[in-house]
Structure formats: C-alpha cells, structure tokens
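Trying the structure run again after the queue cleared.
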Amino acid sequence: MNMVRNNIPNFITSLNLLSGCLAVVAAFHARETLCMGLTGLEWAFVLIAAAAVFDFFDGFAARLLHAVSGIGKELDSLSDLVSFGVAPAMIVFNVLQPCWVAWAAMLIAVCGALRLARFNVDTRQSTTFTGLPIPGNAIFWIGASAWLAAHPATPAWLTLAVIVLVSWLMVSPLRMFSLKVHNLSPRENWAQLALIAGAVVLVCLLGIYGLAATIALYVALSIVKHEK
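Done. Tokens:
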C-alpha cells in the first residue's frame, strides 16, 4: 500500500510528461485538422494546458501524501522540460516554417533546460524565482504562437527579437515573484492580486493572445516589486 501511495505523485508527473510528448507530436501537424475538429496547433495548446494541470497536482499530491522524493523531483524537472520547454519550441518552429527564423525556436528549449538546471541546484527559489519560470514561458508561447499563426506577415526580425528576449528572461538574474501567498494581506500580495486582475482583463479583451500579454505583465510587475 505504501508503494502505491508513494508512486501516485510520480504517476501524475508521468501524465505531465505524456501530455508534453503528445503536444510535440501535435505541433508537427500544426496546420492539419485532427480529431474533434481541432487543428494540431490547437491540440498542442490543449495538451500543454493539461500538462500544467498535472504539474500542479503532482506537487500537491506529493505534499498531501507525504511522498516527496528525489526521484519525483528529477522526474518533475524532466517532464517540465518537455512540456514547457521542448513542446513550445516545437510549436513555434512549426508555426514559423518555412521561414529561416523558425530555427531560432531551438533557443527556447535550450534556455528552458538551463533554467530548470539552475532551479534544481538553487534552494533559495521558494518565494521568489530567478528568471522567468518555465511554465510562464509555455504560457507566453501559447498566446504568441496563436498570434504568429494568425499573422504570418509578422516581420522575421521582430519574431527573432521576441524569441531571444523570452529565452533570455528564463536564464536572466531578474527576480520574479511566486504566486504562492503566505497570508491574505493585500499590501504584501499586491503584485499577485494585480497579476490576477490583469490576466482576467487581458484574456477577456484579447482572447488567447492575452496569455502572452499576461506574462509580459508578470515580468513588469516583478521588476517593479523587487526594485522597491
């Protein structure tokens, strides 16, 4: 019974990894209509969202069941790399094909790996993060990829600049706040509250594009919060 209980979080993490792998497959059929009338691009978005749900619940289950383990931590990191680093990179790569700038999307996966490696050895990143968390990278590229797919005339130099900037943010020394709160004080949690309110407004106004704008807001709020 203990073996089953201890492996429940790892099973959920494996679903995160599976979702990421399927998102990569869907990305290579970005312009094709697949099952349920959704395109490969839309399925990739859905699968990354599913991976994010599993990523949340594996940690929750591990704490609830007192089943935190070294193997679970490593599996979680590897799964996040696939779901939130490699999968978004493949989405961007396929959306931008055959333009030469598509190859720059590989930088997303590389910087995602570096971001996770640094997180794994840095014990200070609990209430604050150093650099953009990799799930934030995935959220940004869901919104940005939808824009790029709908606006193929977007200048290549602008797309390249955004890829480089977001990739750099993951490995940058910038301090980013965590969404975890330890009390209900609006004064202490103003950045989290502003982000939630801003995200609702942006998604309502811009639809899926609002996800990219939400991450831009998160970065801006983090800079303001930690420069005070």
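Strands lie at 128-130, 175-177. Worth checking whether this holds up in the mutant runs.
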